[in-house]
């Protein structure tokens, strides 16, 4: 990152926009005006104090933390995450409304069918009783009512079927909204819900970040980068079988370990880290060896009733320590 900022002074002004986009992507910042302004200030003056401070903090690929950005005068907006949160909430609310509608439609359908049956039975009783004054007109009215009831019943049956189909699609959308499409792992929303659902018990949380992932994307393309992420996700899933592994965003994964001491959890994560390090990746397109890919891990025990934000912040600091002391290692408190 230090070298990338230094090179900005030599690039053409027309290239600034693409470099801002790359900066936002690397630092996992959404394209909010506040983020754009911060990136512009950093990249438009590569010799300035802000650019130098950013280069120092992000030396050799370390990502800026929220506190880093805020200490440098920037602001962090949760635009993309908030949008995903709102979308998921809308799916939940719509699903609940459709559930209520389906129950109402089914009840109406049952009541209409029962009323039609009762009316038909009364009409049959009157027919068997023989002709009486006004019976013909009553039979005509009853027949018309039965016809209308039959039509209403048909429409209600159609509406109930369509409501059930919509409910099934929304149920599928709820699953999709909690699944990372690239790796198949639960996403951040699913992880947050799972954490909130945990009541007591022994828990540990780990953040795992792919080391120098930007070099893979830049050197081999995002397609190769995606395959590397998928392979690492599979390794973490197998190594941490029985525990929740989720994609937290970008090249970062989060693991919620239940029922183990922090020492045992460290052994589990150390096995996962070593498993990733032993893999060798090759570009399918060029047959070039990608080289050794590693992950750094920050692991911490979860306190009783501790907020997720506080646990993540502590794990992120440990992850930063792992990155800044050589990478391909686990740091635990």
TrEMBL record:
Enzyme class, broadest EC rank: transferase
GGDEF domain: residues covered: 201-333
EC identifiers of the protein: 2.7.7.65
Record keywords: Coiled coil
One Gene Ontology term, aspect cellular component: plasma membrane
InterPro entries associated with the record: Diguanylate_Cyclase, GGDEF_dom, Nucleotide_cyclase, Rev_trsase/Diguanyl_cyclase
Name of the protein this chain belongs to: diguanylate cyclase
Organism (species): Sphingomonas lenta
């Amino acid at each position: 990152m230090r070298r990338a900022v230094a090179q900005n002074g030599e690039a053409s002004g027309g290239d600034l926009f693409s470099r801002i986009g790359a900066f936002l992507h690397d630092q996992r910042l959404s394209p909010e005006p506040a983020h754009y302004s911060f990136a512009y200030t950093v990249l438009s003056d590569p010799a300035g104090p802000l650019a130098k401070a950013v280069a120092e903090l992000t030396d050799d690929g370390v990502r800026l933390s929220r506190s880093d950005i805020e200490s440098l005068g920037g602001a962090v907006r949760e635009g993309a995450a908030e949008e995903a949160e709102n979308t998921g909430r809308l799916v939940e609310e719509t699903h609940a409304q459709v559930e209520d509608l389906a129950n109402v439609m089914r009840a109406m359908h049952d009541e209409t069918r029962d009323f039609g049956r009762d009316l038909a039975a009364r009409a049959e009783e009157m027919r068997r009783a023989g002709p009486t004054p006004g019976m013909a007109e009553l039979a005509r009215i009853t027949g018309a009512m039965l016809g209308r009831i039959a039509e209403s019943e048909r429409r209600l049956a159609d509406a109930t079927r369509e409501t059930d189909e919509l409910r099934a699609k929304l149920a599928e959308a709820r699953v999709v909204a909690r699944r990372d499409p690239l790796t198949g792992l639960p996403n951040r929303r699913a992880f947050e819900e799972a954490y909130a659902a945990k009541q007591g018990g022994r828990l540990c949380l780990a953040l795992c970040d792919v080391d120098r992932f930007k070099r893979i994307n830049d050197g081999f393309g995002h397609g190769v980068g995606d395959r590397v992420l998928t392979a690492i996700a599979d390794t973490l899933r197998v190594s941490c079988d029985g525990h929740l592994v989720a994609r937290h965003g970008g090249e970062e994964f989060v693991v919620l370990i239940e029922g183990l001491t922090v020492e045992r959890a460290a052994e589990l994560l150390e096995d996962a880290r070593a498993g990733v390090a032993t893999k060798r990746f090759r570009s399918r397109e060029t047959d070039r060896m990608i080289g050794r890919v590693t992950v750094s891990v920050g692991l911490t025990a979860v306190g009783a009733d501790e907020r997720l934000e506080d646990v993540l912040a502590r794990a992120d600091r440990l992850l930063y320590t792992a990155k800044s002391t050589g990478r391909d290692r686990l740091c635990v408190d």
